[in-house]
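If you are new to this repository, start here. Below is one unmodified record pulled from the training split, so you can see the exact layout before writing a loader.
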Amino acid sequence: MLCTGCNRQEFLCWIEVNAEEKWIRKVGQLPPWTIQLSKELETSLDESVGLYKSALICMSQSYGIGACTYMRRVLEDRLNPLLEIAYQVREEAGAAKEELNEIRRTIEGRTAEDKIKLANQVAPESVAVGGQNPLEKIYDHLSAGLHRRDEQECVKIAMEVRQPLERIFIEFRDELERRQAKRQYDQAIRSLGE
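And here is the target side for that same chain:
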């Protein structure tokens, strides 16, 4: 926590050292690690909130492979709700039935890569970074950790992707709510003319 008087931040860590057996372990810290999420993020994660908290617990215990696994699973679980936005966008734009069917097949499919590419097409501008697909970058980063990195490297990966991943979930939820509110508004205005 940042002290308002001196503008300093402190982090205290207690360790236990056993010189005879040659091991060291952390036994506490202040401020403590927390898995409490903001209301905004909790709402965005919906039924995946438990998995995300499991990822945070793994990060706090230096179980990096577990953290990356849970984070990747949360990303995969949240793809279908994101793809529903893609379907709505194209449907509202008057897309051909074949295109809508293709989107529906992707939603019902099992390939994360196809889902990530489609979700990127409707990503809010607030998550776009120079034409890159942030979902794909995060997913690839987590996957690389799982398949080619050790525990400590995976902890680092999980910590690196945490903030961007949380921002993406929140931005997509906001986009979905904005679109729902716009549809309700359009319907209300149309009903005035009747």
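Two things worth knowing about this chain: The domain at 48-172 is CATH 1.20.120 (Four Helix Bundle (Hemerythrin (Met), subunit A)). The beta strands are 12-18, 23-30.
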